[in-house]
Predict the 3D structure of the following.
Amino acid sequence: MSRATIAIVGAAETTRMGKVPELSQTGLHADAALNAMAECGLTPADIDGVATAGHDVAEIIQYLGITPTWYDGTSVGGCSFITLVRHAATAISSGLCKTVLITHGESGRSNNRGHRPVFPSMQQQEFESIYGALFPPSRFTLPVMRKMKDDGLTEEQLAMVAVVQREWASHHPRATARDPLTVEDVLASKMIAYPFRKLMCCLVSDGGGALILTSAERARDFPTKPVYLRGMGSESTEGPMISQMESFTSSRAFRVSGKAAFESAGIAHADVDHLMIYDAFAHLPVYGLEDLGFVKPGEGGAFIAEGNTRPGGKLPLNTNGGGLSYMHSGMYGMFALQESMRQMRGISPAQVEGAKLSVVHGVGGMFSAAATVVLTNEEQW
């Protein structure tokens, strides 16, 4: 029998999401952080560890009036917040701090920000941008087209990713896009960069979120229902240039991160009740399902198209609607974590009945980094 050592006791998003022009990026961080603290009965004086990405961590600390003994500003793209859960857990376990606040805020739509993420990297600018690969849709097309050629992934299967996730989003009052979709709707939407149509691409949103972590022992004193970190999770990277991937049909960072996370948690795929896979574009859940080992290579598109991940399916995936329908500020990993928290607390508007174990997997950049954590609502297993 094993017992959890780290718990997440606070989880909240910004009061509003989608279009929030009245708040700066800093203001979005603060709104989410204060909401998370209020939920679990804390004030800034109770926080001694702070982590964030895509923004100067010292500025967030100063703005919130916190005096930390530990901080982390690791920024590797959208999976940074999943990475930071692992870093925070390690810091707490090592005695560097007791209570960690992880914040995210991004004015992706209104562009009220002074800080920007780490992309493009110097290598991207020097060796890829000169050929016109300037934005995520044009960078991500290279591996997707190879996967279509080698593995038989079809446009219809990519469209089904958006259709199924819209079904999940329809249950969420806070989701940006809730109207039903068909494969025909997706394929008829505006072409962005082949094979991506508009409805295969993520939303562009304002918003943020925050988590509060502490020891599992201390979590018993909080008014909120704790969610436990089962194992420390894992992270990996392959480098910033998509043209230099080891394989265009699979992500090495995904495979390394996922395998290590499952081993750390001591779980098998059959144990997973709920899954969140970062979906900036429709192909990412396909790669995630395959590289994490839920299906064999080349089978991810068909697995989704057959209905296995939709409501009532055997593997509920991206139950908030994901970056395609719920929201996508630019660095989406925090929102995948928020939905996993809701599922493990039993309060998601699209609740998976009896869910006890959730896997959260994220991508950073264009397959340049990956992080995976395993959350559970059971203190011992």
About this structure: The two ends are 6 Å apart (CA to CA). The chain has a mean pLDDT of 96. Residues 25-40 form the longest helix (16 residues).
